[in-house]
Design brief:
6-stranded mixed β-sheet; alpha/beta; Alpha-d-glucuronidase, C-terminal Domain; 8-stranded parallel beta barrel; Chitobiase, domain 2; GH
Length: about 675
């Protein structure tokens, strides 16, 4: 049976006590859903007499302080009674879940709230055969056989049976939609952006009718459904000889296809597109630009209010390691900066938060600050592709919050981050031709495992992403406390404290025992779990560390390196250009330095590497010891699941420690200052 995660109906019902609900306002799919949540999910009384109610849910023409249809107001009315007011059924749904959250966490139930980001999206990398690219929690909740939960990672996308690809587990999908709506998620893409084989047919019959059933369910929770499409669909599905975005037959085919989709799914969100990247087809093969391709699709969707989300993850995946002038980090800027202002109003560019690929530490992707006339959706990865595969505990909110709080230093803004208008979260939300089409998106970490996320503690990242999207001012500890209070409602404060400490330290611990000081990767090729220091060093993916006997790191300066630094605004570029002003945690991303180079901490680069890699396994051993103290205080399945994962994490941390330390010792022949064991 699937875990209820942070929405445990029995616990919520007990916390609400004798609550009696009343709902007024015009009915739509969302207000009907609120009624069903009260009566069917919570099994609480819903009265038709407002005087009998202790909580009134009201859809009103105007609500003081609320300007968005997604916003709500919770306030006292009389005799201890509460009102949850909104101007729209979607806002009422969010207000309902916010009230439940406040009761469960013991926080103040008086607020006016609106989302900080307009698009708050989960992207599923699900294949229609049921497998998930970079999935670590079992098979897809959308696709596959009802009784199947294969954990294989079919990275090569083999042809497998997709005769009837839809799993059809609508009880599971309803639970998922409820969980997502409760944290403010309002968009979900069902399928992988690498659209292969029969997945291309999701936008046409007979698969489209099946998508409609999912979309209707999600719509009742205020979630718009998106589909990833293959840019070559006019050739593969329409029988055309070309997919050139400037060809009139191609444009007509996409318009007709969009019309057919919206006839069945009026609330359809639109298309997500990966084009001209890692072998996927796109407009460049016809001599066209990304703007040409995106705008052609935008034209087809515009009459229906749909949008195109065009991924900026475009780079040369056939790089020659011998050529140091080529730098993968520069690719997004080089491919898209000159197109700024050329994308249609209903096109959004989805940009990864860093210039590489969801590493443990990256600088801000300069494209986010540099695209001043384009809608931007900032992309994150909840699934732990490079962050421990949901085996290693890694509560990643500290990293994400650092990224959205980063000062872009554009438009003459301050360097000390006191000008909120230049922070990433503000840039995303308030700049672009149509800010309704901007926001945050993240790759999902859920699957068919009973606990949804492989490691029960990885649920905190899913919860945290949604809460971060809605309220950009929350900090990592507040989000963790919310999740803990709702997920372990019967746990003692001591138990909560133990789990909280593991979560809040885990991101730094994982970063410490993996690739050092922002250099990135050093992972096992293909799998991306476990160490392989030189695994990608002579490969085609552009993921190099350039370690030699004298030093380590990638020179990206303008003076002597790849010139990547020049993509930042001048004052930011000046910080990264100078080895002495570059933050320690990003040193090896921007500079190739000697092992004796002194960090701001006073340690040499080499000793820092030794220290952090010895500290990692020690910290994980501490987690294992602490976790033993929660035995009997959390559900047995949760205890066993996390205990097993922590044991695996210790093995991983030890492997990283020994391989990384030995690698750099062999390079330098310099021993650890503290005499700890390094294998020669």
């Amino acid at each position: 049976m699937a875990d209820a995660m942070w929405l445990k109906a029995d616990s919520i019902r007990a916390a609400l006590g004798e609550t009696v609900w009343y709902l007024e306002g015009d009915e739509d799919a969302r207000t009907i859903r609120v009624r069903r949540e009260i009566v069917e999910f919570l099994r609480q009384p819903l009265t038709g007499n407002a005087d009998e109610a202790t909580v009134l849910l009201r859809v009103l023409q105007t609500v003081p302080g609320v300007t968005s249809p997604q916003g709500y107001r919770i306030h006292d009315i009389s005799n201890g009674r509460k009102a949850i007011d909104a101007c729209d059924g979607t806002g009422l749904l969010y207000g309902f879940y916010a009230y439940v959250r406040a009761v469960m966490t013991g926080t103040v139930c008086e607020c006016v709230a609106e989302p900080d980001q307009q698009i708050r999206m989960i992207d599923h990398w699900d294949q229609i055969d049921g497998s998930i690219e970079r999935g670590y929690a079992g098979e897809s909740i959308f696709f596959g056989r009802m009784d199947s939960n294969d954990h294989s990672d079919f990275r090569a996308f083999p042809e497998r049976d997709t005769t009837n690809p839809f799993r059809g587990d609508f009880a599971r999908l309803e639970s998922y939609a409820r969980l997502m709506a409760s944290i403010g998620i309002n968009a979900v893409c069902l399928n992988n952006v690498n659209v292969r084989g029969d997945a291309t047919r999701l936008i046409v019959e007979p698969f489209l009718s099946k998508v409609t059933h999912i979309a209707d369910l999600f719509d009742s929770f205020g979630i718009r459904t998106f589909l990833a499409i293959n840019f070559a669909s006019p050739k593969r599905l329409g029988g055309l000889s070309t997919s050139d975005p400037c060809n009139q037959q191609v444009r007509a085919w996409w318009a007709q296809t969009a019309d057919a989709i919206y006839r069945q799914i009026p609330a359809f969100g639109g298309f997500v597109v990966k084009a001209d990247s890692e072998g996927e087809p796109g407009p460049m093969q016809y001599g066209r630009t990304h703007a040409d391709g995106a705008n052609m699709l935008g034209e087809a969707l515009a009459p229906h209010g749909g949008i195109v989300i065009w991924r900026a993850f475009v780079y040369n995946s056939q790089q020659d390691w011998r050529d140091r002038s080529t730098d993968r980090a520069k690719a997004a800027w080089n491919n898209f900066k000159e197109l700024d202002g050329l994308f249609a109003d209903n096109v959004a560019l989805q940009v990864k938060f860093g210039p590489m690929d969801f590493q443990t530490r990256e600088p801000l992707n300069p494209l986010i600050g540099g695209m001043k006339h384009t809608n931007i959706i900032m992309e994150f990865e909840i699934t732990a592709e490079y962050l421990g595969h949901q085996i290693d505990v890694n509560y990643v909110l500290p990293q994400w919050l650092t990224m959205i709080d980063t000062d872009t230093m554009i438009d003459g803004a301050s360097t000390d981050n006191d000008d909120a208008s230049s922070q990433v979260k503000s840039i995303i939300a308030h700049r672009g031709p149509n800010t309704c089409h901007t926001g945050f998106a993240a790759v999902s970490n859920v699957g068919m495992d009973d606990n949804w996320t492989g490691n029960a503690l990885a649920q905190a990242n899913l919860y945290g992403f949604g809460r971060m999207c809605w309220d950009n001012t929350l900090n990592a500890e507040t989000i963790a406390n919310e999740w803990l209070a709702q997920t372990f409602p019967d746990a003692s404060e001591k138990t909560i404290g133990i789990i909280r400490n593991i979560l809040l330290t885990s991101n730094a611990v994982y970063e410490g025992y993996t690739a050092p000081l922002g250099v990135g990767f050093m992972v096992t090729p293909g799998v991306h779990y476990g160490p392989s220091v030189n695994g990608y060093e002579y490969d085609r993916w552009g993921t190099y560390h350039f370690a030699d006997r004298d030093g380590v790191g990638v020179d990206r300066t303008q003076a002597t390196g790849s010139g990547y630094v020049a993509q930042y605004p001048p004052r930011q570029a000046a910080i990264y250009e100078d080895v002495n002003s570059t933050p320690d945690e990003l040193l090896l991303f921007f500079h190739h330095v000697g092992y004796e180079h002194r960090l701001h901490s006073g340690k040499t680069v080499l000793q820092h590497i030794y220290d952090t890699h010895f500290a990692g396994p020690e910290a994980v051993q501490g987690y294992i010891k602490s976790w033993e103290n929660v035995r009997g205080q959390v559900p047995e399945a949760v205890f066993d699941n996390v205990a097993q994962r922590l044991a695996q994490q210790l093995d991983n941390a030890v492997a990283w420690r020994d391989q990384v330390n030995t690698f750099f010792y062999r390079m330098t022949k310099v021993p650890d200052e503290h005499g700890r064991t390094i294998y020669p």
